[in-house]
TrEMBL record:
This is Enoyl-CoA hydratase/carnithine racemase. Signal peptide: none annotated. The lineage of its organism: Bacteria, Pseudomonadati, Pseudomonadota, Gammaproteobacteria, Alteromonadales. It comes from the Bacteria. PANTHER family: ENOYL-COA DELTA ISOMERASE 2 (PTHR43684:SF1), PTHR43684. Keywords: Isomerase, Peroxisome. Transmembrane segments: none annotated. GO terms for molecular function: delta(3)-delta(2)-enoyl-CoA isomerase activity. The keyword Isomerase applies. It is found in: Peroxisome. Its main location: other. It holds the Pfam family ECH_1.
Length: 245
């Protein structure tokens, strides 16, 4: 793994730190595999009551590593798809600390999280159509429920950049803060959740998610099918080739 993903357990919180800052925390196959392992560990470990995902005060994630798309042979499922299915089915609370770029999966994973804090240097973008691709991580089901069709279409198809204050208005995040406040604040929130009666927290979370769970699961299936198909289109291949010069 070369320490591209760091993890630490303290006060019943598993903190997962994205640590590929030279690539703006773009997630590659190895990182997704480690995320799957850590989420499986957290699910099965009774002492872990909450998961915190973070980068640092300047960078969260630039999204998927596009090089993985070029190398995919089409014969096996993307590890990224395995991760988002695991994320959608995860039963424990997830807190996320966002700073700097939150692109693609860097934004859509927030839709499965429970408490998100973003520093005021955050920049959100869903560039699916600009890459010749389609929404992923169940976002085609979740985002229209939050924003309505028109605004969800604007963000996912036009791919307009938006910032922390707008993300707060869109109810994608819970709170804005200064960069230097981000990680301590996120840790405090995660530890506060972890101190609560676990059965009560898990029950509340399950009830809150139950109405939309079937729709999200179906969206994951539909998105994976279309995403894989679009990767093979001439438009997408041309865009990828231009991206890599």
């Amino acid at each position: 793994m070369d320490n591209l993903i760091l993890s630490n357990e303290k006060n019943n919180v598993l903190t997962i730190t994205l640590n590929r800052f030279d690539k703006k925390n773009a997630l590659n196959k190895a990182m997704y595999s480690e995320l799957c392992r850590l989420f499986n560990y957290a699910e099965q470990t009774s002492a872990i009551h909450c998961v915190l995902i973070q980068g640092n005060e300047q960078c969260f994630s630039a999204g998927n590593d596009l090089a993985d798309f070029l190398q995919h042979d089409g014969k096996e499922e993307f590890v990224a798809f395995k991760f988002v299915k695991q994320l959608a089915a995860f039963k424990k609370p997830i807190v996320v600390a966002v700073a700097g770029p939150a692109v693609g999966i860097g934004t859509t994973l927030l839709l499965h999280s429970d408490y998100i804090i973003a520093s005021d240097n955050s920049k959100f973008k869903l560039p699916f159509s600009q890459l010749g691709l389609c929404p992923e991580a169940g976002s085609s089901a979740i985002l229209p429920l939050k924003l309505g069709h028109n605004k969800a279409f604007e963000l996912m198809v036009l791919g307009d950049l938006f910032f922390a204050q707008q993300a707060l208005e869109y109810q994608i995040i819970n709170k804005c803060c200064k960069p230097e406040e981000l990680l301590p604040m996120a840790t405090q929130v995660a530890e506060s959740i972890a101190k609560l009666p676990q059965d009560s927290v898990l029950t509340a979370r399950r009830l809150l998610k139950q109405t939309n769970q079937a729709a999200v699961e179906q969206a994951l299936v539909n998105e994976a099918k279309e995403f894989t198909r679009l990767l093979e289109t001439d438009d997408c291949k041309k865009i990828m080739q231009q991206f890599f010069g």
